[in-house]
Design a protein that fits this description.
Elements: E1 3-8, H1 12-21, E2 28-34, H2 37-47, E3 51-54, H3 63-73, E4 79-83, H4 88-97, E5 101-104, H5 109-120, E6 125-126, H6 130-137, H7 149-155, H8 161-171, H9 176-183, H10 187-200, H11 206-215
Parallel strand pairs: 1-2, 1-3, 3-4, 4-5, 5-6
Helix pairs in contact: 2-3, 3-4, 8-10, 8-11, 9-10
Length: 219
């Protein structure tokens, strides 16, 4: 399996560094490059890469706007925001645009590869620095305190205890195989639980389920 990546980054030095990061292995390959947001949209339409690795600060339109337009074109597009910015508004805008992950550029090599694989598998991932900031700002994506278990049962009584456990792991960015390992169940069972959660929360995919869980304080 090879994950084909469209790298969107206007700084050549960073772009070259990221490309070299994935050289010499077949799992993740930077197959396409773009320096501008509009160029990224066009290259996505022409090539349909598995993952878009998107910077925010681009010369023409922002990476968030480019992500939004790509997802409007293809709702199944998987976009990883990779940025040096930890702005509350940019995090919010990226999530609302439909990004599957928000990573900072100080991320280490192994973690970035994990994030790309996680998003490819259908999960979402947020840099650990993002969640505390959102809670502190009380910006509406993540409530300042968690919903109590009693309140959760009252509002989402159709989710089983096991499905709730699986939902927490989906929010943490684990793939089906990782969930199976964590809960000592088969991957088939893990996938079934995720499908049930998506159906019960009335969302389209696991990324939307994770975002809804964060928005409503379910985990």
């Amino acid at each position: 399996m090879t994950i084909n990546v469209l790298l969107v980054e206007d700084q050549k030095l960073i772009r070259v560094g990221l490309i070299s990061l994935f050289e010499g292995q077949n799992e993740i390959v930077v197959s396409y490059e773009a320096e501008r947001g509009k160029e990224a949209i066009e290259k996505y339409r022409l090539n349909k890469p598995d993952i878009v690795l998107m910077d925010i600060g681009l010369p023409d339109i922002s990476g968030i706007e480019a992500a939004k337009r790509i997802i409007e074109y293809d709702c199944k597009a998987k976009i990883v925001i990779l940025t040096a910015h930890l702005s509350e508004q940019e995090v919010l805008d990226a999530l609302h645009a439909g990004a599957c992950a928000y990573a900072l550029k100080d991320i280490n090599t192994d973690t970035l590869k994990m994030v790309i694989k996680t998003v490819y598998d259908g999960a979402m991932w947020l840099d650990p620095k993002v969640v505390p900031i959102l809670r502190e700002k009380n910006c509406g994506v993540i409530p300042p305190r968690q919903m109590s278990r009693a309140m959760f049962k009252e509002q989402h009584a159709n989710l089983t205890q096991r499905e709730y456990e699986v939902l927490k792991l989906v929010v943490e960015g684990l793939s089906n195989s990782e969930i199976a390992q964590e809960l000592t169940i088969s991957e088939h069972t893990a996938k079934a639980h995720v499908c049930n959660i998506i159906q019960k929360l009335v969302v389209d995919d696991r990324t939307q389920a994770a975002v809804k869980a964060l928005k409503e304080g379910l985990v």
